[in-house]
Design a protein that fits this description.
heterodimer; A: mainly alpha; globular; B: alpha/beta; 6-stranded mixed β-sheet; 3-stranded antiparallel β-sheet; 10 helices
């Protein structure tokens, strides 16, 4: 069939694009590294030029790996939430994750916390904990009960986010010295991140993404509505909790490392859905692929746009994602689902 | 074993029970119809049998066991429910939706097998959607979508099939085809079918047993010819009807001949 052949072609294109943009991002920057040196690095050959070695090993490679992991992870979490909430405008931060992370990070910044927690710097650890705490509160309010629905969760998420955001504003207002740090943190970015962050990303995100992937068929069933999903024998509340835990692991790690990088988790799954269809066993890997490519490119843009200055990558994803968000809103009316 | 036994069932959604003291017995292999006016509790009754509502009091037994005593997956292997209002992700294809009917047998992770594909293909053929198998559900008409939902439930290959208004949105041809398919499955697999129906003539033609409910209580139960008599219908629906019988007395046609004032809040006063 033509459309399936086109999809296979596009899948092959994106699979090839991923290493291509990664290599580009590793090689290009305020100092360009020749492609032969990049190839030597990747093949594990000795690099005699210490400057190149340092740029590649200490700066670019971990940064590009992080962009791949965070972009792919956020996209997987976004695809899971869009399925769970049956809403194409859901993203990884939809049930309070970003507000919780912001409050955690702000609290740590305001208090001048200095103790590192399991390999994370204190602000990252606080953001990680804040994410989980906020999602737990939202789930506690909106997700438990026999008649709970995804809509209750969304509304609880909106309410909790509002309260937490107000608390962030209050904290910053009280301690205005922290304003710049909080502001910069919230914009999100991968500047100055290293191998220890790659380790954190791997530990939390890989299991999270695998869990989300294992929930592909349950997510398909949820797309038929709660009643149908239950009649297919899906333990709905347990599955929802599992998906939320998996997505929160990813989101919390992403936020702890890169701050609040918006729109990747919205854009990538939506683009993947338009190209590859709605079945989650294809949609989730496709989202991961597109999310990884998108964030590597966005981070490259962040480095190059005002070089040698760095623009926070959150600004790039927001500037490109905002108009896309509006396009989705306009073209779907907020919901791709229909009632019979 | 797929019979259903309800004893003094009371259940609902909040403080006010929707169904009160409902008892009925549905034999294996039976075509059982639930009829009654809007808001009578027909869908609630179906949901209770589907294990989606817990009894406040009384009991539900499916094949001799309470729904809660099966694992959800085991229950879904035996009981399929096609709800009336279904949220469908419109970008899933027809085949993808119907394939999900195989999930109770295949599990949530293992890939579908050739056997599953054959069953899905046969089911799609049964509901006349084989040629639309790869189309997104969003491109289909209301009647076609309805058939997708029915096919999904049929692909579960249950012993007990619960259908909420199966003929809603269906044209005459597909209505006839649906009942023919259900009849075939009933004979081939001794399937028990419980369905809510609005059309009383259709209920008379397509069901072996009927139960008429009103305001959450059973008003009449038995063979269609016994349940659908002018006096009972007048009491429940507030409509005067003439009941015409086919020569073989196998089916009745209910023809309204005049209405009494309709009041949703309770019994209709005789005008």
């Amino acid at each position: 069939m033509n459309s399936s052949r086109r999809r296979v072609g596009l899948a092959a294109f994106f699979v090839a694009l991923l290493p291509a943009v990664s290599l580009l991002a590793v090689g290009v920057g305020s100092v360009d590294v020749p492609i032969t040196v990049v190839a030597d690095y990747i093949l594990g050959r000795t690099i005699n030029d210490v400057t190149y070695w340092t740029i590649l090993h200490e700066l670019r490679v971990p940064r590009v790996l992080l962009a791949l992991l965070i972009g792919g992870g956020l996209a997987a979490a976004g695809a899971a939430y869009q399925g769970l909430f049956r809403n194409p405008l859901a993203d990884p931060f939809v049930i309070g994750a970003s507000a919780g992370a912001a409050l955690g990070a702000t609290t740590a910044i305001v208090l001048g916390a200095s103790a590192a927690v399991s390999g994370m710097d204190p602000v990252a650890a606080a953001a990680f904990i804040g994410t989980f705490a906020a999602v737990a509160v939202v789930y506690g309010i909106g997700g438990i009960g026999t008649r709970s629905s995804p809509l209750t969760l969304l509304l609880a998420g909106a309410a909790v986010s509002t309260v937490l955001s107000a608390m962030v504003s209050l904290l910053v207002l009280v301690d205005d010295r922290s304003l710049q740090m909080v502001y910069y943190w919230m914009l999100g970015g991968l500047s100055g991140k290293g191998w220890s962050d790659v380790g954190i990303a791997l530990v939390y995100m890989v299991p999270g993404v695998i869990l989300v992937g294992l929930c592909a068929r349950p997510l398909d069933a949820m797309a038929l509505g709660d009643e149908s999903a239950r009649s297919l024998g899906l333990p709905l509340n347990r599955t929802r909790l599992l998906i939320i835990v998996a997505a929160s692991l990813i989101t919390a790690a992403a936020v702890a490392i890169g701050g609040i990088i918006g729109f990747v988790g919205l854009m990538a799954p939506h683009a993947a859905r338009m190209i590859f269809g709605a079945r989650h066993s294809v949609l989730i890997p496709a989202s991961v692929l597109l999310g990884a490519i998108l964030l590597v490119l966005a981070d490259l843009g962040a480095r190059l746009m005002l070089a040698p200055l760095e623009v926070p990558v959150g600004i790039i994803t927001a500037v490109t994602g905002g108009p896309f968000f509006l396009y989705v809103l306009k073209s779907t009316g907020g919901s791709p689902g229909g009632r019979l | 074993m797929s019979g259903v036994e309800l004893r003094a069932l009371t259940t609902g959604y909040g403080s006010e029970p929707v169904l009160q003291d409902v008892s009925m017995s549905i034999a294996e292999g039976c075509r059982f119809g639930i009829v009654g006016p809007n808001g009578a509790g027909k869908t609630t009754l179906l949901r209770a049998i589907a294990g989606q509502l817990k009894p406040e009091s009384g009991s539900i037994q499916v094949a001799g066991c309470a729904p809660g005593s099966f694992s959800t997956r085991r229950f879904a292997q035996r009981v399929a429910f096609a709800p009336q209002l279904v949220h469908l992700d419109l970008s899933l294809t027809v085949r993808q939706v119907v394939q999900l009917g195989r999930a109770p047998h295949r599990g949530w992770v293992r890939p579908f097998t050739k056997e599953d594909d054959l069953i899905v293909r046969q089911t799609l053929d049964d509901v006349g959607l084989l040629s639309a198998a790869n189309r997104p559900v969003g491109e289909l008409s209301g009647g076609q979508r309805r058939r997708v939902v029915l096919a999904r439930a049929m692909a579960q290959q249950p012993d007990l099939l619960l259908l909420d208004e199966p003929t809603a949105h269906l044209d005459l041809r597909h209505e006839v085809a649906l009942f023919a398919t259900l009849d075939r499955l009933r004979v081939e697999r001794s399937l028990t079918i419980v369905m809510t129906l609005h059309d009383l003539s259709q209920a008379s033609a397509q069901c072996d047993q009927l139960t008429l409910i009103d305001q959450g209580r059973v008003v009449a139960a038995g063979k269609p010819a016994d349940v659908l008599n002018p006096e009972t219908i007048r009491q429940v629906y507030g409509v005067r009807v003439q009941v015409l019988h086919s020569p073989d007395h196998n089916r009745s046609v209910i023809v309204p001949v005049g209405s009494e004032s309709v009041d949703d809040s309770g019994a209709s006063p005789v005008s």
